[in-house]
């Protein structure tokens, strides 16, 4: 998920997200880890990723119950999520591992030659964890489950979604940021005539948590 938070509400947002929202999500069966990253440039953007045991957790009764019964504090904070992009994904390919300080996110539009794009990106990403400064690279594909809009989504006013997503993490922010041009072929990874150019953002780790941390 990507969104912006206005500077005036940022302190309360991080307090709520760290001390209520993350613990709430980690109490749901099937949630393995939640990680929040902030814009590395000091902007208003955040990136949050939840790792799940199974794709089916996205449609579990426990998870949907939480989405449809937000707390009073969540109800207050949800409208503050500006420019929300929320993608429920399957992992297509994963190389390396761990949680690192710097994270590059790439959002690629849907296009005709999907299998060719998957092969191209998987091949490029597979080499990255071997480079100095890089620790992991992952390719995700949005697969939105057929579930009605939840109360949280309605409060936010509706969410956009990405199609293909590449994540590159590492301990050297400069190297991580440069991979989009030096290793992945530049900003126009999408084919000619696609809906939009690739959107790339660099983030810095703010907080990561597992169920054991909040139990």
Write up what this structure looks like.
- This protein has one domain (2-214): Alpha-Beta Plaits.
- It is built from seven helices and nine strands, in the order E-H-E-E-H-H-E-E-E-H-E-H-E-H-E-H.
- The chain has helices spanning 7-26, 61-67, 72-77, 114-127, 151-156, 173-182, 211-214; strands at 2-4, 31-39, 45-52, 82-85, 89-96, 102-108, 134-142, 164-170, 199-209.
- A nine-stranded antiparallel sheet has the order 4-1-3-2-9-6-8-7-5.
- The longest helix is centred in the first third of the chain and has 20 residues, at 7-26.
- The model has no long low-confidence stretch (mean pLDDT 92).
Shape: globular
Determine the CATH topology: Alpha-Beta Plaits
Helix content: 25-40%
Low-confidence runs: none
Largest sheet: 9 strands, antiparallel
- Class based on secondary structure composition and strand pairing: alpha+beta
Strand order within the widest beta sheet: 4-1-3-2-9-6-8-7-5
Terminal-residue CA separation: 24 Å
CATH class: Alpha Beta
Count of discrete structural domains: 1
Order of helices and strands, N to C?
Answer: EHEEHHEEEHEHEHEH
Mean pLDDT: 92
The CATH architecture comes to 2-Layer Sandwich
**Radius of gyration in whole Å, from Cα?**
17 Å
Taken as a percent bin, the fraction of beta residues is: 25-35%
Give the beta-strand count: 9
Number of helices: 7
């Amino acid at each position: 998920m990507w969104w912006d938070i206005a500077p005036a509400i940022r302190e309360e947002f991080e307090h709520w997200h760290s001390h209520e929202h993350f613990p709430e999500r980690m109490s749901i069966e099937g949630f393995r880890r939640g990680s929040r990253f902030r814009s590395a440039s000091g902007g208003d953007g955040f990136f949050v990723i939840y790792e799940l045991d199974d794709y089916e957790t996205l449609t579990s009764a426990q998870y949907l119950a939480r989405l449809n019964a937000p707390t009073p504090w969540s109800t207050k904070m949800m409208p503050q999520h500006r420019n929300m992009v929320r993608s429920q994904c399957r992992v297509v390919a994963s190389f390396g591992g761990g949680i690192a300080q710097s994270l590059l996110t790439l959002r690629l539009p849907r296009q005709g030659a999907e299998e060719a794009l998957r092969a191209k990106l998987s091949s490029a990403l597979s080499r990255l964890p071997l480079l100095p400064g890089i620790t992991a690279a992952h390719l995700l594909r949005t697969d939105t489950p057929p579930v009605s809009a939840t109360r949280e989504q309605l409060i936010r006013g509706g969410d956009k979604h990405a199609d293909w997503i590449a994540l590159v993490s590492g301990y050297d922010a400069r190297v991580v940021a440069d991979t989009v041009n030096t290793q992945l072929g530049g900003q126009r990874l999408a084919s000619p005539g696609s809906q939009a150019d690739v959107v790339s953002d660099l983030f810095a780790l703010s907080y990561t948590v597992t169920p054991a941390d909040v139990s």
